[in-house]
Amino acid sequence: MTSVFRVRVTPGDAEFKIREGERILAAARRSGVWLPFECGWGACGTCKLTLTEGEIDPLFDTAPAIHPRDERRKRILACQSAACSDLVVKATWTDESPRAHLGTGDYTAQLEQVDELGPDIHRFRFRLDRPAEYREGQFALLELGPDLRRCYSMAATSGDHQVEFIAKRYDGGAGSERLFSLPLGSVVPMELPYGDMWLRQDTLPIVLIAGGTGVSAILALAQQLAAADDPRPVRAFYGAGSVDELVGRSELAHLLAGLPNGRLHATTSTPCADDSTPSGYVTDALAAHADSLTGARIYLAGPPPMVDAVLQLLSTSGHPLDTIHYDRFG
Ligand SMILES: Cc1cc2nc3c(=O)[nH]c(=O)nc-3n(C[C@H](O)[C@H](O)[C@H](O)COP(=O)(O)OP(=O)(O)OC[C@H]3O[C@@H](n4cnc5c(N)ncnc54)[C@H](O)[C@@H]3O)c2cc1C
Ligand code: FES
Hints:
alpha/beta; Ubiquitin-like (UB roll); Elongation Factor Tu (Ef-tu), domain 3; Rossmann fold; 3 domains; six-stranded antiparallel β-sheet; 34% strand; binds flavin-adenine dinucleotide; binds FE2/S2 (inorganic) cluster
């Protein structure tokens, strides 16, 4: 029989039950206790708690947000820790309601449609058990099997029962291989929304930057801008390995064409046979159009090496950090 423990949160008097194996963050949320969080999977560190009493099971030892000093200070990740006993934890704050952009919930989703967009790149459409609200640019955590949770960015604007993801299959990648092997009709538990990369409402010009399947989040943002007839100038940069991997390129170009000064700079890291697309990395395209970055608010999504390279370029050029919003896919 599964054990049930109690978690007490200090300061204050919040308390909730947690089943053996359940994550502290999810158990708290399901009981109406909202602890700080943002990414939900171990990257941002927002959900760190101090463990005052009890034993936990750290479910993701190598989570990017874990530092050696955290163990000494008894700091744990609420999103990646399960209870092994009753617990007392200290949090920076608790609330009885979620923040505006993070009303995260548990959904079950049925796989309705899969479209092949490029080599080992598919678009997956799921139907949720109830309508979900999220901000374009945010992502979901898919429970693809026991202890197999992976993040995927919503590829379409928020609305009703449907969510779409653009995903790549990696050889030997447990999560992506599982996703690509799902037959139509499969039911997948998912939590959404997570993440902080959503459109800020101000007057700054906008630069959207996608690497590979990072185009998923960037397409959703471009759709949102187009649907709102947004008056801000928009530039987009999109890099992939080859022209075939620039999936969603024409959709993105079409959306941008309807926006003020909307322009897409696509690039491939391997030279393209017919010269239709410049070769190079996204950072090369950004360096060639550095003027478009000045004074802009930047939204960036893609694989870690690409995101890190772009952040380095922006930091070197002195771009203000508070106008950069990004999702690093790992
Ligand atoms: C915010 C975010 C958004 C993403 N959006 C997309 C997208 O739209 N399209 C897309 O194709 N990919 C996306 N990814 C990448 C995706 O989540 C997977 O990392 C990718 O599919 C490779 O997974 P894999 O299992 O096949 O490979 P593996 O090499 O087996 O997976 C390794 C990756 O899985 C993640 N991981 C490992 N253990 C855990 C754990 N316990 N809990 C949570 N995560 C864990 C880590 O990111 C790690 O780098 C996103 C990643 C993040 C973080
Ligand atoms: S590390 Fe837990 S919410 Fe980001």
